[in-house]
Design brief:
The complex is a heterodimer. By secondary structure, chain A is mostly helical. Chain A has 11 helices and no strands. Chain A has a single domain, classed as Orthogonal Bundle (MetI-like fold). Chain B folds into 2 domains: about 140 residues, D-Maltodextrin-Binding Protein, domain 2; about 100 residues, D-Maltodextrin-Binding Protein, domain 2 (3-Layer(aba) Sandwich), CATH 3.40.190.10. In chain B, the strands form 3 sheets. In chain B, strands 2-1-3-12-4 form a 5-stranded mixed β-sheet. Chain B starts with a helix and ends in a 7-residue tail after the last helix. The chains are: A mainly alpha, B alpha/beta. The interface between A and B is medium-sized, with 21 and 23 residues.
Chain lengths: ~230, ~250
């Protein structure tokens, strides 16, 4: 193996970041997806569009705004400073927040599709059996939406592992804190260390392929976001 | 054809012929720190010769990789002297075209007035959260910054270092206030012989190895007259004045 200590540190950091981001996104994304799936509010369109923005925006746009907003002169930065937390760029917490925004559509959209596919009928039946809303959600909706939840977790995780632009722009390339695999690959290529770059980049290709393979073969469905 | 129309037609054909005989495009790759001066030089070059400079800015290592993989660049302004030397050894440049166009200067800079003192004592005081430098493995100014930190034995500030992938990003971290201060290229904060804002310490040259910035004509520019003209122009007095106004030294 040609992986240095710093490469291994980058791999662990990336896995940590992706795990934490996915867990957070499942907590935040589920209510958003549920609301988007059920609501008839005029806000459905705008909120859905905001959630989907990272699909089309270059990560540099998100990275740039995060850097400005979370910086000492930005509103988020002023708030975190007032709370005695310092500023978030160059920290692992900052990366987690950036990743949550960045990977949001990859979690919310599969969840939303799964929730929409359930339809009204099972919920109405449950209601006639006197299940309250919470009961209904945990015993009917979540089990029925399981394939969607699995898809959301896998896509959220894999997409965070592959994140580059935001990490580059707000990370500061600090080993063990903000230097993820994709940044480390960039460093190797820039430093003309092509062997190390190949090991990590090749690893990423394999990882991504097997994640998608597992995803598509486990569901026996046609490729797609839902 | 009516008269005004025919006049227009003649004027247009004349300008096309003029284009065909004189003006030529030069594809240039330029290291991040030299982007601003090159733009100014390119404007003056275009006015004087009619040739157009199409510049792509990027980190030196990245440009090297692109050149090795067939990028269409004809002239390359590197941020160091080792990358052009490497390209020369590997046969990717027009033999004998390598020369030092500027000598870079390192500066410790903060956008805040009075934050950085003229002796750099702010480093010893160590009362900041983040200090920004460029990646020392890939950017000459980053390497120079680590040499300064080592020479002044400032081990205490090392955990506070944040790295930009190139000198532009190192500057951006400081300019946005996310890092209080940082080691950047003098050319980024210097214009017309003075600091554009904030406070700075121009690091004495004995604290780091000289940052020689070399330029070359690449193989793709072998037959380009405009590429040769651009190189001659860079060596000339007009370009020299512009390069100096950004705080670079010139090779004697």
């Amino acid at each position: 193996m040609h992986l240095s200590e710093l490469d291994v540190a980058a791999i662990w950091l990336t896995l940590e970041l992706a795990t934490l981001t996915t867990a957070l996104l499942l907590c935040i994304g589920t209510p958003i997806a549920w609301w988007l799936a059920r609501t008839r509010s005029f806000l459905k369109g705008p909120i859905g569009a905001v959630v989907a923005l990272p699909l089309v925006l270059p990560p540099t746009v998100l990275g740039f705004y995060l850097l400005v907003f979370m910086g000492p002169n930005g509103p988020a930065g002023q708030l975190t400073q007032a709370l005695g937390l310092g500023t978030l760029p160059f920290t692992f917490t900052g990366l987690v927040i950036g990743s949550v925004f960045y990977s949001m559509p990859f979690v919310v959209q599969p969840l939303q599709n799964a929730f929409e596919a359930i339809g009204d009928r099972p919920l109405e039946v449950a209601a006639t059996l006197r299940a309250n809303a919470w009961d209904c959600f945990f015993t009917i909706v979540l089990p029925l939406a399981r394939p969607g939840i699995i898809t959301a977790s896998i896509l959220g995780f894999a997409h965070t592992v592959g994140e580059f632009g935001i990490v580059l722009m707000i990370g500061g390339n600090i080993p063990g804190r903000t230097r993820t695999i994709s940044v480390q690959i960039f460093n190797h290529v820039e430093a003309m260390e092509f062997t190390q770059a190949h090991w990590l980049a090749g690893g990423m290709v394999f990882f991504s392929f097997f994640v998608l393979l597992a995803l598509y073969s486990s569901r026996r469905l046609k490729p797609g976001l839902s | 054809m009516s008269r005004p129309l025919s006049r227009l037609f003649i004027a247009l054909s004349a300008s096309f012929i003029a284009c065909a005989t004189h003006a030529e495009d030069v594809q240039v790759a330029v290291a991040a720190n030299f982007t601003a001066p090159l733009q100014e030089i390119a404007a003056s070059f275009e006015k004087d010769t009619g040739n157009k400079v199409i510049a792509s800015a990027g980190p030196t290592g990245g440009i090297y990789t692109q050149i090795k993989n067939g990028a269409p660049f004809q002239v390359f302004f590197s941020a160091d002297d080792t990358t052009p030397a490497k390209l020369e050894k590997e046969g990717d440049i027009v033999p004998g075209s390598r020369f030092t166009y500027a000598i870079g200067k390192l500066v410790l800079w903060s956008p805040k007035e009075g934050y950085v003192d003229s002796k750099g004592a702010v480093l010893k005081k160590n009362a900041f959260e983040h200090i920004s430098i460029a990646n020392p493995k890939t950017a000459p100014y980053g390497l120079a910054a680590t040499q300064v930190i080592d020479k002044l034995k400032l081990n205490a500030i090392k955990p506070k270092i944040v790295e930009g992938s190139n000198i532009t990003q190192a500057y951006q971290f400081v300019a946005s206030g996310n890092a209080e201060l940082g080691f950047v290229a003098l050319s980024q904060v210097y214009k017309d012989g003075k600091l554009t804002g904030g406070s700075s310490w121009i690091v004495p040259q004995d604290l780091y190895d000289p940052i020689l910035q070399d330029a070359v004509i690449l193989n793709k520019g072998k037959d380009s007259k405009a590429a040769k003209e651009l190189i001659e122009y860079i060596k000339g007095p007009k370009a020299a004045a512009i390069i100096k106004s950004y705080g670079y030294d010139l090779k004697k």
